[in-house]
Amino acid sequence: MRLYEGDISTFRADVLSNKISDKLVDSYKSYYSKLPVHSEIRSWNNSLRALNDAIAYTGLNDNMIALEYELPYSSRRIDCLFFGKGEDNKENAVIVELKQWEDAKELDIEGNFETVETYTGGSIREVPHPSSQIEKYTLNLKDSVVVLQEEPKIELYSCSYCHNYIKKEGKGLFSDRYKELLKDYPIFTKNDIEQLSKYLKNKLQRGDGFKVFNRFSESEIAPSKKLAEHFRGVIKENKEVFHLIDDQLAAYNTIVDRARRSNRLEKKSVIIIKGGPGTGKSVIAINTVQKLLSEGIKVYHATGSKAFTESIRKLVGSRAAILFKYFNTFSKTKSNEINVLIMDEAHRIRKSSNNRYTKKEERSEKPQIEELIDVAKVSVFFIDDDQVVRPDEIGSVSLIKDTAKKFDAEVFEYQLETQFRCNGSNGYMEWVDNTLGIKETANKTLTKNEKVEFKIFENPKDLYNAIMDKNTKNHPARMVAGFCWKWSDTKSDGTLNEDVIVGDFKMTWEAKNESRKLAPGIPKAMYWAIDPNGVSQCGSIYTIQGFEFDYVGVIFGKDLVYDPIGKIWLGKPENSADSSAKRAKGDFIKYAKNAYRVLLTRGMKGCYVHFMDKNTENFFKSKISNEEGLF
Q: For 289-318, how does the pLDDT look when each residue is reduced to its tens digit (9 = 90+)?
């Protein structure tokens, strides 16, 4: 997706006639069903005028330009892409990232070669160095767009234009610590308009931009890498699979910096990284584990999910499996014994580490959150407050902050916005939140512009068949359901009971964790998400959290229904088989909403749904644009 495309002459005319920002606003409104913020419109006006001045020096005319190009599988947009042939007659694309910055300074972070501090968004912020930002954008495109990978390929070049910035050798953006980045990803500043023009002319002077643009825009998008692949690649093969960008980088660099200083700092560090489904929390977590391991820093990764933890252990292999723990395994660990403890899915932290198997003499009165902060010099919490789905899971940002105060810890807080799931659609995520009444957002109606294939099926059999058709080895799909049916024990012959029943449709839940003997073809519960045979069982909220698939099929039960007369959501605990959530009484509806929010946001490419309650189905349909194929 791009908000603007055209030849150089048309672009120049639109800038000179002051139409360029109006066209971008119209495209933005049409695509996102809302208006851009005023600061973004001002940025378009200011930066595109400066870019137009640089183009005037080049004499280019037979070239194409695309503005606000959305990265594949992400909600981030590249400011500008040029297309044409270079002086060697090779086909080229050139990224130009535009910045209005007037000043920037390097940060006092050990080994930081990627971020700077500057005034943007109304305050002083830590943000990626422009060369680091475009490096990640470049790698993202090369990983995703086939025509940039396979011969005859389009060569991709990248630069930044900081048109208000005055260059000072060895300082700010041009500090020696960034010199390696600047070699491959140059920055042109206020006084570099002629140099920028020469750079563009060298890459684009032979024109034929329309042909190059068409090859690029019509190229196949390579399959996205799944989190499972990422775990295997980063830890087992010791290589980076995903490249962190923008808001991810600032959080990552702070973790690494605090880790490196952990033995010298007097105070503990508590780092809170907030983000909704698909914002890359687990990707940052695993990148960080690999990085700290490579530097010999003592680090552990912990979660509160058996399925998530055991799947990671299986993927990374036996040698690395020891690094992946549970929240309740640190009750006997000494204070500050660990340099860095990374807690993924921190909303699943419980009141205490005691469970039904804990011996009386080993039970602790200490809250689990205090244990976790106490054992580490640096505690990192990846959290989404709206993913709490049972009352005994109490992890929240406020709980972490309050506990950090008790330890007099230094607190760092980050918010992730960039979307990598649901085809990078923030709009789809916000639509789910708005429709379920979790929070009010601007995305009240779902359109095909959101890039997520959302389909409603009248018959659960058709839903199941559609998911089976989508499921392949490299593009997994799964069936999931609200917890509305009992979960039977495994039969004596190792087979499973068909507990999930909707009319004449029947399906088994995934196996229970305690199931010891399972018939051939039935994976253990903890491997349901990563075992290809998992597509034959219906997953629950407790096995799917933390995972993603290409497509997810959801059976939306009658434990949460919409009342069209009162125009409110109603929780129906009598239709639930989740004993934990039912004990919540007045909070049952909150946990039910959060559970369906999780289920509806597990798909990278699509979400297929069958609603058992007709009023609920009709309500969802009323929130979908009347476009063919959505239901």
A: 888 887 888 888 999 888 888 887 877 775
